[in-house]
Amino acid sequence: MRIHILGICGTFMGGLAIMARQLGHTVTGSDQNVYPPMSTLLEQQGIDLCNGYSPDNLHPVPDLVIIGNALSRGNPEVEAVLNMGLAYTSGAQWLYNHVLKGRWVLAVAGTHGKTTTSSMLAWILEHDGHKPGFLIGGVPLNFGISARIGEGRFVVVEADEYDTAFFDKRSKFVHYRPRTTILNNLEYDHADIFPDLAAIQRQFHHLVRSVPGNGLLVVPERDENLAEVLRMGCWTPVEKTALGPDTAADWQAHPLAEDGSRFDVVFRGKRQGTIHWQLSGRHNMLNALSAIAAAHHAGIEPAAAISALSRFQSVKRRLEVRAEVRGITLYDDFAHHPTAIATTLEGLRARVDGARVIAVVEPRSNTMRMGVHADTLAASLAPADLAILYQAPDLGWDLAKVSSASDRIVTCDSIGAIVERLRQECRAGDHVVFMSNGSFGGVHEKTEAALRET
């Protein structure tokens, strides 16, 4: 079959393209911005790419068009698909019909930590010899690729609550019909499509409704927003996770190091083993518990899961060390929400103790660009000794509202100004974290070059 994918360079749609290619289909695709690393990855898979949207991209005529959720009516290629009467579907529906149906689906949902927890879970299954399929919105370093069909009955899918397509406004995850489901956490996000938290909770409850009675929900003990979702109705066993011994949670993490790099795993009062790994932060301990609990439901003993996670190499762009220059460590992090910013910086602070931490933040997600988190962004930067915010020309709101909250927060209106500030500011022993869900104008490479020249 010849499949053409609109919006192919997004992480989700790019993963689908890889899976479709692995299934033996001829795959092509188009996107508004075709650039590395996704373009390189797809071309290596034998997938032809078109830069920009045009009716010409639909020749030769494909058997099926998969339309990404970023595209809407008025797009010239979408209009051509409709006018030509071509068969089309959403990415989420194609994924269920051709990859997930008939297999044991393990889904990871939540506002934060989906990519990392999905990667942990896939790695536990791999380490135990199951060769799972997976579709993850990032690149797990243990695998070096974001998607594969797999050989066994298990498939791990990062379950996003964003809408499905212009013709299907349900959240993508309602299509997946998982047997094992992790609900990591729930906060207000995606303000471009959800008017309030209650609207997101309703979609999460649609997901809960689809999990069978012989399945499992893994939920943090102390998340009131998720507790409200479950109070809407739950027909599936629930196992809860929490940090510390002062809790009734089924799965507990007992920290042995302040930075979260070593901790005991306890299941219903019995110690299962100790994880000693390169990750840090309270959030990653909770992510690990969720992955272990989900794997246990799939038949993997906690001791085996703990052994796997002790060899877990994290995910690209999750506090990833990009360079070390003159004793200065540069990191790349995908943080897109104040809570994610805070937990990442808290974990790094605990790891580096008294060393200086500098956070460089691009408010780039749709919700951040709308200014929804303007009142909480300053507090999320508290663990940093200095925070530099990028006032992009098209941001739409003034970051002075944030910088006025603390003399440790400054704004810059260009990438060049950020690089120059870092060149003057940084000294040996500093830890600089670039935080954005985009490429951030190449600021990582430009800063590294400037520091090497100094």
Automatic annotation (TrEMBL):
**Residues annotated as domain Mur ligase N-terminal catalytic:** 2-97
Q: What is this protein called?
A: UDP-N-acetylmuramate--L-alanyl-gamma-D-glutamyl-meso-2,6-diaminoheptandioate ligase
Q: PANTHER family of this UniProt entry? A: UDP-N-ACETYLMURAMATE--L-ALANINE LIGASE-RELATED (PTHR43445), UDP-N-ACETYLMURAMATE--L-ALANYL-GAMMA-D-GLUTAMYL-MESO-2,6-DIAMINOHEPTANDIOATE LIGASE (PTHR43445:SF5)
Q: Where are the transmembrane segments?
A: none
Keywords on this record? ATP-binding, Cell cycle, Cell division, Cell shape, Cell wall biogenesis/degradation, Ligase, Magnesium, Nucleotide-binding, Peptidoglycan synthesis
Q: Give the protein family.
A: Belongs to the MurCDEF family. Mpl subfamily.
Cofactor(s) it depends on: Mg(2+)
- Entry's NCBIfam families? mpl (TIGR01081)
Q: What gene is this protein a product of?
A: mpl
Enzyme class at the top of the EC tree: ligase
Coiled-coil intervals in this record?
none
The species this protein belongs to is Methylococcus capsulatus (strain ATCC 33009 / NCIMB 11132 / Bath)
What is the purpose of this protein?
Answer: Reutilizes the intact tripeptide L-alanyl-gamma-D-glutamyl-meso-diaminopimelate by linking it to UDP-N-acetylmuramate.
Which reaction does this chain catalyze? UDP-N-acetyl-alpha-D-muramate + L-alanyl-gamma-D-glutamyl-meso-2,6-diaminopimelate + ATP = UDP-N-acetyl-alpha-D-muramoyl-L-alanyl-gamma-D-glutamyl-meso-2,6-diaminopimelate + ADP + phosphate + H(+)
- GO process annotations (BP): cell division; cell wall organization; peptidoglycan biosynthetic process; peptidoglycan turnover; regulation of cell shape
Pathway given for this chain reads:
Cell wall biogenesis; peptidoglycan recycling
Q: Where is the Mur ligase central domain?
A: 108-295
Q: Where is the Mur ligase C-terminal domain?
A: 317-438
GO MF, one annotated term:
UDP-N-acetylmuramate-L-alanyl-gamma-D-glutamyl-meso-2,6-diaminoheptanedioate ligase activity
Q: Which residues bind ATP?
A: 110-116
